[in-house]
Design goal:
The protein has 388 residues and is α/β, with parallel strands linked by helices. The protein is built from 15 helices and eight strands.
Length: 388
């Protein structure tokens, strides 16, 4: 058998500042641009439709007013979590096409619901050129959720975004791995103080993309599964400048392909989201074509013969107390609600001789999330940038 990918469009711009006083960010056009290059057909994916976002309208927002579009982002995140949950309930692998990085809030909410349902913790692999860790504790003001998404999903920030449905945090600090930020990221020391595991570009490149993917998986061994966030600004602007905040010092397409393939080549990877590509900066579609090539190759392990639907590991041990440098107390461990029937999840490592009969029709149990809602390194010749 093989895992089936379901592609869901989440064309939201709500987490970005307007490029000019009279314009709207172009990231909402990304799903259509990627589909135009045959993404679904090449992945042999099911079309899971499009979740239309609320209207982009900053109105009279001013610094100090909190996160712009917060009510709209919150409502959209709940709807997105519902859609992701229904995909996972079908035993499929969700590929969410953003949109800006605020889509992570919807994915995170879905993962927290899932973690509660199975009595475990879900982790996050955050592949991004920026840490997106701005929050009221380290900045004079907040405003654009796309620059604050990692802070929000780890419980930092205003409750209408950081604690939707009373869930806070969606991911614990110790269950997050950050890959691909620049060496001098503005909030790198804050990540370190919080105990969030990071591997900036120089270390990623020194270790190699394949080994980095394996390393990231090992960091989340105590989690029942994990979600993968990919912001295409992890790529160097020399090869992919079509983003809202290009920053030199990124990785190459070939490295992203290998990294993504390593991250998804396990049934414990529950899904992937792709964010921040802006077709307004890609008039001839060349960058969209290259992104599609990379995603198709990177997700090849998901649809390879013999791949199995998402399966969750048994819950790991209770998280240790936060480090002394982290002033924020960790929340209490998530309970396993007695009202939710035990899902059919794996309790042993998956071996090579797993058969269809071992999985059943729905490896996570029918309606699980809806019930919970109460090696090789890249060829430098391909990269287009110096990887020495």
């Amino acid at each position: 058998m093989m895992r089936r990918i379901a592609v869901l469009d989440a064309p939201t711009n709500l987490g970005l500042r307007p490029p000019t006083a009279s314009s709207v960010p172009g990231c909402g056009k990304a799903p259509g641009a990627l589909r135009d290059h045959g993404l679904l057909a090449r992945l042999r994916a099911r079309d899971a439709g499009c979740l239309t976002p609320p209207r982009y309208d900053p109105g009279d927002w001013r610094p100090g007013d909190g996160v712009c579009h917060a009510p709209e982002i919150s409502a959209y995140s709940v709807a997105l979590a519902d859609r992701i949950g229904s995909i996972i309930d079908r035993g499929e692998f969700p590929l969410v096409l953003g949109g800006d990085c605020s889509v992570l809030l919807g994915s995170a909410l879905a993962m927290h619901r899932l973690g509660e349902a199975v009595g475990g913790r879900i982790g996050l692999v955050f592949v991004d050129g920026h840490s997106d860790f701005r929050h009221p504790g380290n900045a004079s003001y907040v405003g654009a959720a796309a620059g604050e998404d990692l802070a929000l999903v780890t419980g930092r920030g205003q409750p209408d975004l950081a604690a939707i449905e009373g869930r806070r945090p969606y991911f614990r600090d110790i269950d997050v791995v950050v890959l691909g930020i620049r060496a001098q990221d503005e909030y790198r020391l804050d990540l370190q103080a919080a105990g969030i595991t990071t591997r900036p570009v120089p270390a990623l490149r020194a270790e190699g993309a394949a080994r980095t993917a394996q390393w990231a998986h090992e960091q989340l061994v105590d989690c029942a599964g994990y979600w993968v966030h990919v912001d295409v600004d992890v790529l160097d602007p020399a090869v992919m400048p079509a983003v809202d905040a290009p920053d030199p010092g990124g990785i190459a397409f070939a490295e992203l392909e290998i990294l993504l393939a390593g991250l998804v080549d396990t049934p414990h990877c529950l899904g992937v989201e792709l964010t921040v590509f802006d077709p307004d900066y890609d008039p001839d579609g060349a960058y969209a074509a290259e992104i599609v090539n990379t995603v198709v190759a990177g997700l090849a392990p998901v649809v390879a013969p013999g791949a199995v639907p998402p399966r969750l590991l048994p819950a790991g041990p209770v998280a240790p107390a936060p480090r002394a440098a982290d002033s924020r107390p960790e929340p209490e461990p998530l309970p396993a609600p007695a009202a939710v029937p035990a899902p059919a999840v794996a309790v042993e490592p998956i071996g090579p001789d797993l058969t269809d009969d071992d999985l059943g029709d729905d490896p996570l149990g029918p309606g699980l999330l809806r019930r919970a809602s109460a090696g090789d390194e890249p060829d430098p010749a391909r990269s287009g940038i110096d990887i020495a």
